[in-house]
Design a protein that fits this description.
The complex is a heterodimer.
Chain A (H helix, E strand, L loop, with lengths): L2 H21 L4 H34 L20 H11 L10 H16 L1 H7 L11 H16 L11 E7 L7 E8 L3 E3 L14 E10 L4 E9 L2 E6 L7 E3 L8 E8 L4 E10 L6 E7 L6 E2 L5 E2 L30 H20 L1 H4 L10 H16 L5 H8 L9 H13 L2 H4 L7 H14 L5 H8 L6 H11 L3 H14 L20 H20 L6 H4 L2 E4 L1 H7 L10 E4 L12 H6 L8 H12 L24 H8 L3 H14 L14 E2 L2 E2 L4 E4 L5 E4 L2 H10 L1 H16 L10 H11 L4 H13 L11 H6 L3
Antiparallel strand pairs in A: 1-2, 1-4, 3-10, 4-9, 4-12, 5-8, 5-10, 6-7, 6-9, 10-11, 13-14, 15-16, 17-18
Helix pairs in contact in A: 1-2, 2-4, 3-4, 4-5, 6-9, 7-11, 9-11, 13-14, 13-27, 15-27, 16-17, 16-25, 21-23, 25-26, 26-27
Chain B lengths: L20 H5 L2 H4 L9 E6 L34 E8 L8 H7 L7 E6 L7 E4 L4 H10 L9 E7 L13 E3 L2 E2 L6 H33 L7 H18 L23 H17 L3 E8 L17 H5 L6 H27 L13 E6 L16 E4 L8 E9 L1 H10 L22
Parallel strand pairs in B: 1-8, 1-9, 2-11, 5-8
Antiparallel strand pairs in B: 2-10, 3-4, 6-7, 9-10
Helix pairs in contact in B: 5-6, 5-7, 7-9
Classes of the chains: A alpha+beta, B alpha/beta.
Chain lengths: ~775, ~425
């Protein structure tokens, strides 16, 4: 028997033996022998497939499917089951003479291709991925520096569960006879006071109104604030002393002011809006914002909290975007732009500290007469940045050396910043130092995108961060931190494919209700449910089949739910037949839609790629989707089916269309519909799993239930979760880790935090030699 | 307690923190764009609260005239002096005269109605147009041959740390006042911070190289690729940072511990003036403003033996001889500061050897009011010293109450920016004042 055949049988035996051992030990040997014999036939097919490949396929695809220039250049890889692959081969190959192979021939060829190089397993086996040597991504760098400053002035961020801002109304001269009139929590920042005053009982002049609290940035990027005010107003974001917008001088004919600031997703910022009226004839005030790639809208109440937050050090220096070509941002390449941005940002940090040392340094270090205090603070800062205690040599090089010359203290501090923030140890975390030091660096990066805290550094110094029993409580503490919760929320957005900007504008005359304010409420509704899933230890299968949705009165008037028009946001249950968790959320459905109709193709691709983790090739030719006008009599479903009926199209659309069709009940704005152009909706769909099982469903609800129970989906979410958090390929930590982490998720009631425990342990002890994979698809071939 | 390292909060607001890199790498890219002749410069100097006209304006008209006490310090420059009596700020609308005197002085256009209530008249907001200095700056910056690193620099001394219509004279557009930098340390950082940063960067590169090498020895062969690239970038960067002969003009040194206080106004003025002279020599900008305090400025010139504040004194009637004497002294002190500046410019040759800096620099000394106790906007002090704009100097001119928009037009035309209107077009009908 050839090597390949032996391997095939061996893999197959191991896979099934373990399963049988777990269930009925007595049956093992007999069943195995029978199955192994059965497999001999498959081995003969394999030889036939190999021969066919050499004679009919290799000239265009290459001997190992690697592709041939000027023929079919792309590597032949994918994740169709052998059965489906055989059907595609039969229908499309060889070029110029499709359907010339017999069914057994196509089957044999598919089996050979699948095993040798096509399947994900074959790809992993042929070139096992490695843990990539990586620097901090720009996002991780910003977070690390913010946290570094917080660690060194002892002020951690906090975020209370209460929503809205503290609103205080006062009456009288500010510095003379001012009295508090009313104090309450309120998140509304758009006011056109009918009587030019916020309360009936106060005078028309000499009143003040102040909203204060904390703002949570939902995404990273530049936020523009637009203030329109006819009274003396100042807006403070992050910095409580220097206003972001100073509109204390109001020009009535030009009463709007705007300013922008770069905020980091998941971080919270001090937020104060201060207004006072004296003799101004009108009292109107509105503050809106335009989040990165969002629309101008009132700041959502859900992102405001009435508590105080310390100032965060914000880096304004723009960085070039990090490579995200593999589906997650990673720091595996460097460029001149990056290096220059790094230098400029380190200077910026030094400037910020030295321009206002009282704000960033504790009292003693701010005493100019005491250089020793300054140096001590710098040493603390460097140690937190390098994630370890300093040696005397480090203290000399990173701190003392910069204060030796004739330069001022300020220049010394700036040099400390420059040397530390550009140092390889800071920039390449987890690749140097003791195992304990590497572990805390890896964990902080994976779970927080940031630095370990001083407590962890201390444990690592005592060498108490390498045994799983030592690591578990550390990880447990880290996943209770709000930084983890925020990262998990960001993951869900990434998983849903909603992290990138998209214009959601729909045809106005048909979807009049879908204006910018409704879109903004919908986005908020989705953010609320996602943060629920990030907050607590909940079963994340609900993301796929729960009926819960957040609605307010406005949303309810469009999407149902029976709320009165002025109802605030609340959790309601949608009719069961519609519920497919966040997949059926109107924002998601409207996102995966055209401006005038739903898009089964976009929805299908989303489900296949992101939810089921299938790989799809881009279309061979760019196709303009057929519009309604071309075939006015057809439903969306019929139109899509017609346009993608070609054999080449079907190699992918056989997966895409039947998945997308299950959401035919949702129109272009994600609103439920029972019929389209007078014809009843047909939401029947189907899916062939990568193991070859055929599944059918008749509604989004049934699809959601199938997905929630599907091991493929569990595996896909585990892989994406791992890669989003760790920013390394999962198979690099062992080719069997995808399976074992998926089992961890399943065994822990589909809760993320216990899974993260296992992920945390795994990244602290990466295996040195990858194990060979189990290939369930090959095994399944014999077990229809 | 004040800190050794830091100055006031707004220092970072002047834009020295972010995106400094293009200049960090190449300080000289614009600084020496135009070594040839034809450099023209404008310095607008503002002092507040009107003047004592009888001690200010020459009685005679033409090229034969005597200097009155306030302008006596300018005697060495009499043949390069141009006094413009009879030019008035005719902008009306909202705001009191101190507000309009300031906000319309360089903009020549009305203030927006707004919420700032002055002593009389209706309240107002910011000016509704760009100021002439910024208009000329835009003109110069749009041409490669006149482009400089900053285009314009806005200096101040003793400007209160509040933003309102009385404290802002320069506007980059309607409703967009520019804050003068009245802290010499902040101005120094703006001008030279990057030079210092360059030195700091250079000082850490060796350590960075050796740390990279250390890490390199700890990682696998495959992983070294990234570190190799990293090292190459550091070396390349180091080469770019090596000192460039063109950048080597002297960086001034500042006395490190001058408090921002009323009594330090003379010292701060000297520091700011010297920084401006350095900026001119380095060709960092061609347009400068220098704002003493603010409209309604309340400096107490104790160094002249005057305990009262300037604005309070300026309200005293003409019959108060003591007040008149003190106000004359105050204005003479301002004039002395301008004379110092003019002397320095006259003593410094142009980099191309053609004449002195003053030959190509026009100083415009002005005020928000004609006279303090009447609050008049007629006969606004406009005194020009120097050259470069093609005006015929060494004269005392008397106009018949012409709008100051026409003078603003003359300044633009002097720079070859031939606009037909500036500010409120109704006041531009007769075109620029004929000064050449």
């Amino acid at each position: 028997m050839r090597h390949a055949q032996r391997l095939l049988i061996a893999v197959f035996l191991r896979h099934f033996t373990s399963q049988f051992l777990a269930t009925s030990p007595g049956m093992v040997s007999a069943s195995c022998v029978a199955l192994a014999l059965c497999h001999l036939a498959a081995a003969q097919d394999f030889e036939q497939g190999k021969a066919l490949w050499a004679t009919q396929c290799a000239s265009c695809h290459g001997s190992t499917g690697q592709g041939v220039e000027n023929h079919f250049a792309d590597p032949l890889t994918g994740d169709l089951s052998i059965k489906e692959l055989a059907e595609v081969i039969q229908a499309t190959m060889p070029e110029g003479a499709p359907k010339s192979l017999t069914d057994p021939q196509a089957q044999a060829l598919a089996q050979f291709v699948h095993h040798e190089f096509y399947s994900p397993y074959a790809q992993l086996r042929n070139s096992p991925p490695k843990i990539a040597f990586s620097r901090l991504t720009a996002d991780q760098y910003r977070r690390s520096v913010s946290d570094l400053m917080a660690i060194c002035n002892g002020q951690a961020q906090a975020w209370s569960q209460e929503r809205g801002l503290q609103r205080l109304i006062t009456q009288g001269e500010w510095n003379k006879d001012r009295k508090d009139v009313e104090k309450k929590v309120d998140g509304k920042l758009v006011w056109d006071w009918p009587e030019n005053k916020p309360l009936g009982e106060i005078d028309h002049e000499k009143w003040q109104i102040r909203w204060s609290g904390t703002l949570l940035a939902p995404t990273s990027g530049r936020y523009e604030f637009l203030l329109d005010s006819t009274i003396n107003t100042k807006l403070f974001v992050n910095d409580e002393r220097t206003p972001l917008i100073d509109a204390s001088v109001v020009s009535y004919e030009k009463s709007t002011n705007s300013a922008s600031i770069f905020l980091v997703a998941g971080q919270v910022y001090r937020f104060v809006l201060d207004a006072s009226k004296n003799k101004e004839p009108k009292a109107r005030l509105s503050l809106q914002w335009k989040p990165p790639s969002g629309v101008l809208e009132p700041i959502p109440d859900s992102l405001l909290s009435p508590t105080w937050a310390p100032q965060t050090l914000l880096i304004e220096t723009p960085f070039p975007p990090d490579d995200a070509s593999v589906g997650y941002e990673r720091g595996t390449s460097i460029s001149r732009d990056w290096f220059e941005a790094l230098i400029a940002s380190a200077i910026e940090v030094g400037n910020q500290i030295t321009e206002d040392p009282k704000r960033w340094m504790p009292k003693q270090a701010n005493d100019p007469t005491n250089l020793e205090h300054v140096k001590k603070w710098c040493a603390l800062w460097v140690s937190a940045a390098l994630r370890r205690p300093l040696t005397p040599d480090d203290t000399q090089r990173f701190v003392e050396a910069h204060f030796d010359g004739e330069s001022s203290i300020a220049v010394g501090i700036k040099k400390v910043c420059l040397m530390t923030l550009t140092s390889p140890e800071f920039q390449y975390p987890g690749f140097s130092g003791s195992e304990d030091e590497k572990n805390i660096a890896r964990l902080a990066l994976a779970l927080w995108d940031s630095l370990p805290d001083p407590w962890m550094i201390e444990l690592a110094a005592k060498q108490e961060c390498h045994h799983p029993d030592q690591l578990r409580p550390i990880i447990d503490r880290m996943i209770r931190d709000r930084r983890f919760e925020q990262k998990l929320t960001r993951f869900y957005l990434e998983w849903l494919g909603l992290h990138s900007a998209k214009d959601l504008t729909k045809t106005k005359d048909r979807f009049e209700a879908f204006d910018e304010s409704l879109q903004s409420d919908l986005r908020q509704s989705l953010q609320r449910i996602l943060s629920d899933y990030a907050k607590d230890d909940v079963d994340i299968r609900g993301l796929l089949n729960s009926d819960a949705i957040y609605l307010n009165g406005k949303l309810s008037s469009v999407f149902g739910g029976g709320l009165p028009p002025d109802a605030p946001f609340q959790k309601v249950a949608m009719p069961t037949e519609r519920a497919a968790g966040v997949l059926s959320h109107p924002f998601v459905q409207a996102y995966y839609a055209y401006h005038d109709s739903g898009s089964p193709i976009h929805r299908g691709v989303f489900l296949a790629r992101r939810v089921l983790g299938r790989s799809l090739r881009p279309p061979i030719d760019a196709i303009i989707p057929a519009s309604e006008e071309t075939d006015p009599g057809l439903t969306t479903r019929q139109r899509v089916a017609k346009q993608t009926s070609g054999a080449m199209c079907q190699s992918c659309h056989r997966i895409i269309n039947p998945l997308g069709f299950a959401f035919e009940n949702y129109d272009a704005i994600g609103r439920f519909r029972a019929e389209e152009n007078g014809k009843p909706i047909d939401a029947a769909g189907a899916y062939v799993t990568s193991l070859g099982d055929q599944v059918e469903f008749n509604s989004s609800k049934q699809l959601g239930d199938f997905l929630a129970a599907s091991p493929e989906v569990h595996q896909a979410i585990v892989k994406q979760l791992f890669q989003f958090f760790v920013k390394q390929p999962l198979p690099a930590y062992g080719l069997d880790q995808s399976d074992s982490l998926t089992k961890s998720l399943q065994n822990h009631g589909f809760k993320v935090r216990p899974l993260m425990q296992d992920i945390g342990l795994l990244i602290c002890q990466p295996p040195s030699i990858p194990k060979p994979p189990a290939n369930p698809a090959v095994a399944n071939l014999e077990n229809p | 307690m004040t800190s050794l390292y830091s100055r006031r909060d707004f220092a970072k607001k002047i834009g020295i923190s972010a995106s400094a890199l293009p200049f960090l790498l190449n300080l000289s890219s614009l600084g020496h764009a135009s070594p040839t002749s034809g450099k023209q410069r404008l310095i607008v100097v503002f002092s507040p609260n009107g003047v004592i006209p009888t001690n200010f304006w020459p009685d005679q008209e033409g090229d034969q005239f005597d200097l009155k006490p306030i302008m006596a310090p300018l005697a060495p420059f009499k043949n390069r002096l141009l006094t413009l009596h009879g030019v008035s700020d005719k902008i009306r609308g909202d705001g009191d005269n101190h507000m309009r005197g300031m906000g319309c002085l360089l903009t020549g256009i009305e203030l927006y109605p707004g919420n700032i209530q002055g002593g009389s008249d209706t309240p107002a907001g910011w000016a509704s147009g760009i100021s002439i200095d910024q208009e000329i700056k835009k003109h110069l910056q749009a041409r490669p041959e006149t482009q400089t690193r900053f285009g314009s620099l806005e200096f101040g001394v003793g400007v209160p740390s509040r933003a309102d219509t009385w404290t802002r004279m320069v506007y980059e557009g309607p409703n967009r006042p520019i804050t003068p930098v009245d802290d010499p340390y902040a101005m120094f950082n703006k001008l030279y911070g990057q030079r210092k940063d360059q030195e700091s960067v250079r000082s850490i590169l060796d350590d960075l190289q050796s740390d990279l090498a250390k890490l390199r020895s700890n990682v696998s062969q495959d992983d070294r690729r990234l570190l190799d690239e990293h090292e190459a970038l550091v070396r390349e960067f180091e080469k770019q940072l090596s000192p460039n002969a063109a950048d080597n003009h002297a960086v001034p040194s500042l006395d490190p511990k001058v408090e921002d206080s009323n009594d330090n106004i003379p010292t701060l003025t000297r520091m700011q003036t010297d920084l401006m002279l350095h900026a001119i020599q380095a060709d960092f900008a061609r347009i400068f403003t220098f704002q003493f305090t603010n409209s309604v400025g309340q400096a107490k010139m104790r160094w002249l033996g005057i305990e009262e504040d300037h604005h309070g004194l300026s309200h005293e009637p003409d019959s108060n001889e003591q007040a008149v004497e003190k106000l004359t002294k105050i204005n003479t002190w301002y004039c002395e500061q301008i004379a110092y500046l003019a002397q320095k410019l006259a003593d410094t040759p142009e980099s191309d050897g053609n004449g002195s800096l003053l030959d190509n620099t026009t100083i415009l000394w002005t005020n928000e009011l004609g006279k303090g106790n009447s609050h008049t906007l007629e006969n606004i002090p406009f005194v020009l010293i120097g050259g470069g704009l093609g005006f015929q100097m060494g004269r005392s001119l008397k106009f018949k109450n012409v709008p100051h928009n026409r003078l603003l037009l003359s300044l633009a035309h002097g720079f070859g920016h031939s606009i037909s209107q500036f500010g409120n077009a109704n006041h531009c009908n007769d075109g620029p004042l004929a000064l050449s």
